[in-house]
Amino acid sequence: MSKFIMLLLCMNAIYGLSFAQKKYELKGKVIDENNQALAGTYVMLYPIEKGSVVDKTGSFLIKDVEEGTYKIEISFIGYQTVTDSISIPEDQPYNAALKKSFLNLQEIVVTDNYAERRKREESLNTEIVNERYLRQNLGGSLMKSLERLPGVTTIDIGSGQSKPVIRGLAFNRVVVAENGIKHEAQQWGADHGLEMDQFAISDVEIIKGPASILYGSDAIGGVINIKHRKLPADNSIAGTVNLSGKTNNDYLGTSVSLFGRRKWFFADFRVTLLDYGDYKVPADSVDIYSYRAAIHKNHLRNTAGGEKNLHFSFGIVKTAFQSRFYLSNVSSKSGFFANAHGLEPRNVDTNLHDKSARDINYPYQQVNHFKLINRSRYQWDKVSLETDLGFQRNFRQEWSKYVSHGYMPAIFPGTLNFDPDLERQFEKFVYSGNVRLSYHANEKTHFIIGASGDLQDNKIGGRGFIIPAYKQWSFGSYAFSKHTFSEKSIIQMGIRYDHGTIHTNEYSDWFTSPVIINTDTTFHYLKRAGNISRSFSNFSWSVGYNYNQERWSFKTNVGKSFRIPIAKELAANGVNYHNFSYEVGNPDLSPETSWQFDAGVEFNAPKFAVETTPFLNYFPNYIFLNPSSEHDRLYGNGNQVFYYTQSKVLRLGAEIHAHYEILNALQLGVIGEFVYSEQLSGEKKGFTLPFSPPASAIFNIKYKKPKMYFLENPYLTVDFRITAAQKNIVPPEKTTNGYHVINIGLGGDVKLQNQKVNISLQVQNLTNNKYFNHTSYYRLINVPEPGRNIIANISIPFSGKMNKK
Amino acid sequence: MKSVKIILVASLLLLVFNFCTQDAEIDKQEPQIDLTIEGAFPQNCDTLYFGESFKLKMLFSDNVELGSFSIDVHHNFDHHSHSTEVSQCDFLPEKDPVNPFSLIDDYKIENGLQKYETDELITIPSGNENGPFDDGDYHFFVRLTDKEGWSVRKGLSIKIFHR
């Protein structure tokens, strides 16, 4: 009997094996509501990720499909994506009719449904924009161009440098990742921008909320994920010439790219050059404390700057394997407002500074960021393996005329190995790697396991000391799973373990200070930092749920994320002359943890769409640089002492985003954001957190048509931005009045032969309104925001075909 | 599902209003340095003398409680510093320092004071082991905090001479 069962089992197995080898073809048709063929529609089968494009007759064909159950996804721009479960060979052929899509909350019509799909599948709130959006909203820097998005604000330093702020969190609480690798620079400084070339970006995804599972430490406030998804078409060579100009700071910029592909090999090259002068403010003087500094022809003295960026990427693309190298060097130099260095009023040689609005004198900053990244992906039937490897070097110098602050000698000794005018220098080397293994167990369940690690080596230089040199390494591993109960409901959860170690180097002053014991004064080289070694471990987790109906979609997410204290928080012991603060680190800080609840509700109808995304966030031990009432003579050179402490913090807020289509061509919109933060313990109990953005709303009218005379996709948009006053402040901030600003954008595509030349124009601050931005680095010395600015951007594509040999 | 949404939004709004209206009593005012009192010294553009003492006369005040203050005197021979004050002073010609004077000191203020008139006697020596100090333009910097850490600064342009 048992033999008979064995035989049966074996036969069954053989039958199964032979059956598994049999391949089928999936055929079908895709039409629209009027029975017209929808050529160009994408048809994809998951989890095998096999796809095809619908031809002119409306037919598609996917070859070599094994028997089984799959998820089929049919998508076309402007139509509702159809997802269905199909069994092969039973459901052959597969025909579908696509319906026109609902109005969506994308700020721009995207070229595929990627953004909408990502938003519906991600349980955290996300915003996705593409390069077209960046061109239409071109600002002085990447972050400035993204500032219009709900929940995104910036900390600005002049007209060309901005730091990202997501829902009020910034600095080391926001991760910026480019091609999978975390961008590492000197994020802790309020006057340090983000070293990114906005012209070299094809997609930006902004995750609002803690994303520690995939990004590790620091992703406590959110992630700005910069992707280069573009792949040149087969056997083609193409490129774009992008030209931009701005009237406010006489900015001129160009970015030229050239890319091509021959079968499986492709390459992409880009160079970006920007140069701008001092920016203009609608004021003839600036009140630095009680002293009124006159400014010449509205030019904010010495805020000129420039960028020189190079990018080269190449790789191979095959059906089961893709590998791509990215090589980039982003280099910028920009001046600081000459009438103040940080918060200290300075005398200005007006003959020197007002001679030209384009030159850069002292003080200025110069930053060079080099990156080499490799991303590879191996795809098998149900399993894919992705690796990211990266090397980065960030080199920052801050230059200002040597001034003997504190006990520094009045006459700079000639025996030192650095330039007396080099105020600070930071050099960072980062080696990082990620591995991700993704397994589509079946059409409903998807697992990812991964690990990441990085090694950092930081060196310091220059006359001023604020943080010591340090080495740091960290390692993390995670598991993530996503389960689709039905087409409508998705649950995802993840857990991550991280370990990090940091070693700081000893540092002593290069000059002596008078140490007074009893009444004896002796001169010593003060020791600023010791050899500190700390290790940190942490578990983080998150659970999210999405429910997508036809018109409604709901999402919710709960998670714990964390951040390893940075070297500055652990070991700072020097005067930050930019802020008049003597900053003292605390080597006993624990890793900062954050608990966050996120929700999102979105409603889409043919003429109306609205979304709201509230959040609630609690930090049991937020790391806060607390301004104390003390002054310190010896180490602090008479400055106020700021101590790193930890306190309980509660934050909550929401964004709202709505569109209403009055006519086919006319659309009204509103984007609003609000954040509230309160310290629940510690010396600043009841106070908010520094750099809290005030509530704000943008009311928008947009007129757009598919065609108008010679223009394709013309648009005209008017933004009326109202920002509330920020009265909720913490020392040393000032309350900032509310303001309103009008911005206008218009543009479209002009067809020249076979190419579409894209033109975008903007008028920012139309009424040349004088107002202050609460989160500007210069707010404390009363520097107003830029005046009226007309921005033009022209993008001219060109292309050619390679001969097929 | 609709009711869930309504409850969610309503409870959030409630929370928001609750936080916004409960305006906890926190100090949001900076302390003040008053140089308009009778005999206030030094004033912007004043002159001090090496080898002599002077009384620091300033009125500090705060709405809740004063913290501490510090004084920093350093040379301004290169005219790098500007005073924080409205009045402009005439500078001597720029020059390179040889043996400039510098002084930094921090001072505590007794706990619980809302007003404090300084009465500190400050001595400026006439020189050190390297010889007499340089005559010329100096910068006199006063920093004041209150208990909460709010701060205010005054930077005065002064001259120090050998009598």
UniProtKB/TrEMBL annotation, chain A:
Biological processes, Gene Ontology terms: siderophore transmembrane transport
InterPro entries: Beta-barrel_TonB (IPR000531), Beta-barrel_TonB_sf (IPR036942), CarboxyPept-like_regulatory (IPR008969), Plug_dom (IPR012910), Plug_dom_sf (IPR037066), TonB-dep_rcpt-like (IPR039426)
Domain TonB-dependent receptor plug: residue ranges: 119-223
Domain TonB-dependent receptor-like beta-barrel: 363-766
GO MF annotation: an example: siderophore uptake transmembrane transporter activity
Domain of life according to the entry: Bacteria
Pfam families: CarbopepD_reg_2, Plug, TonB_dep_Rec_b-barrel
UniProt entry tagged with the keyword Transport: yes
Membrane topology (UniProt): Multi-pass membrane protein
Gene Ontology CC entries for this record: cell outer membrane
Compartment(s): Cell outer membrane
Main location: membrane
Keywords attached to this entry: Cell outer membrane, Membrane, Receptor, Signal, TonB box, Transmembrane, Transmembrane beta strand, Transport
Family: Belongs to the TonB-dependent receptor family.
PANTHER family per UniProt: HEMOGLOBIN AND HEMOGLOBIN-HAPTOGLOBIN-BINDING PROTEIN 1-RELATED, TONB-DEPENDENT OUTER MEMBRANE RECEPTOR
Protein name in the entry: Iron complex outermembrane recepter protein
TrEMBL record, chain B:
Pfam families reported for this sequence: DUF4625
Signal peptide (residue range): 1-23
UniProtKB keywords: Signal
InterPro entries (alphabetical): DUF4625 (IPR027829)
Record protein name field: DUF4625 domain-containing protein
